[in-house]
Amino acid sequence: MPSVLLVGLVLLINLFLYGAEGPLVGFRNAYIATHLYYGVMILAGRFSTRVGQYSVFALTTIANLVYVVLNPNQFEFVIVALIYPFVALSIVRTIWRLKIERQKTNDQLADIDSVNTNLAKQIHSLSTLFDISQTTSMQSKPSTGNLNILLDEITQVLAEKVGIHRLTLRIWTDNRLSEQVLATVGLTPSEIRRGEINNIEQICQHVLDNNEPVAILHKAGKICPLPDSWQSEIAAALNKDQVAAWCLPIRINQNPIGTLTFDKAAEQFSVEEDLRILTIVSSIMAQRVEIQQMFNSVVEAERMAALGKMATTIAHEVRNPLGGIRGAAQLLELELTHSSDTQSYLNIILKEVDRLNRVVGELLVFGRPYESNFQQIDLRQMVIKTLELCKTDLEKFNIEVIELFQPNLPMVELDQDRIQQVILNLCRNAIESMSGEGQLILHLNTANSREQIELRLEDTGKGIDEEIIPYLFDPFFTTKLKGTGIGLALSHQIMTEHGGQIRVDVTKTDGAAFIMTLPIKQNQTNGVQ
Fold it and tell me: What's the pTM value of the predicted model, to 2 decimals?
């Protein structure tokens, strides 16, 4: 468009030139036209394209030459017309070079602005990470519930620095969710509910299985995987408006043990900046979780050692007097005549002494160093024989036993006496829980691609309060009037010695269900205590 306007201007100048009344006037007008052509060329150099500039240059040069041809006697103007192309071309080139220099200067200024902006963002990111590191280092001594406090403080920093107001830590143990911590800053209960993701457990499982972060999209919980090898390319192509949250793995020695779910940061931060900050935050949290787990392991080991020593001492101190009490009661029982009341009292003494002896036996097992005695055992037959030991109580309380056993189960390498003790303890607990009519349901089947075998014991009793589930396997914790709190703790210890686990099914609402999982083949390290 500027070139068209300038061509029109040249034509107007020529109409003015050839419309003069006489040659002398036309001659003077030719000088004026030439000077106007210089102005036109300056305008072309400033506003027109390279093609437009040369088009206007060619048109004005031709106009001057036409006037020279029509007026050959005007020697002075011939000189002016011959000089014009060189001066005009010099003007155009000078202006073009100035425009190029100006563009280079603008580009350099834009680069400097971009560098300054990136530098400011990096400084902001470093400041955020520094504050998080300071928060982590201030929590130098791990303790129970420390992760909750740490997560709250990290969320506070992220909310202030990058606009992330929600953070959820999930830790998995043996392929099941063992701990979940939610931290929010400045969100109302309704905002927290609106931000919940329906299929978050499946998303977290994908992150754990593939050991890669994902973007959780607004579209019906869809995800966009972000493999480490080409994370930056996907991040550059991903529209942040599509993203609802991020889910990153928590890695210890490159193995995922949990996930961190973040809301996306404020809009002024790019996808790549979000991921850079959150990846480092997840690494910091991974280190903290590892430290916490090591601390918990050391504390647990020291506590169990102290309890074992105390249990052994108590058992030895109690067993000798119990032997004397039982012997005295048996001697009294051998006397010729007893009244019915006396005999009743003697029976109570003998029964209670036997109960205390069983407790002492459990204490000795709990505190004694374990020596493995693994053998290939048919677990199905062992469960059936264990149920025979409970037959009297089962019939007494009219409890129905339902056996749901998978056929063709493999032989399992285990210590028969120890595992039978666990099963017997769970069966007795179930019978006490029902204390009347009910059902004891046993499921026995393989799990984890036939590498493990799982025994599930369900009852229809009064169930277990959700508040006490975390403490069930703690030594000496009990809710029974005559309980010792050793049975489940000892069961947990035995299962750990076998490289297995025992847990409560927290999803069961009517009655209680315990799940025992054992490896079919033992590792060499199992059983070494």
Answer: 0.51
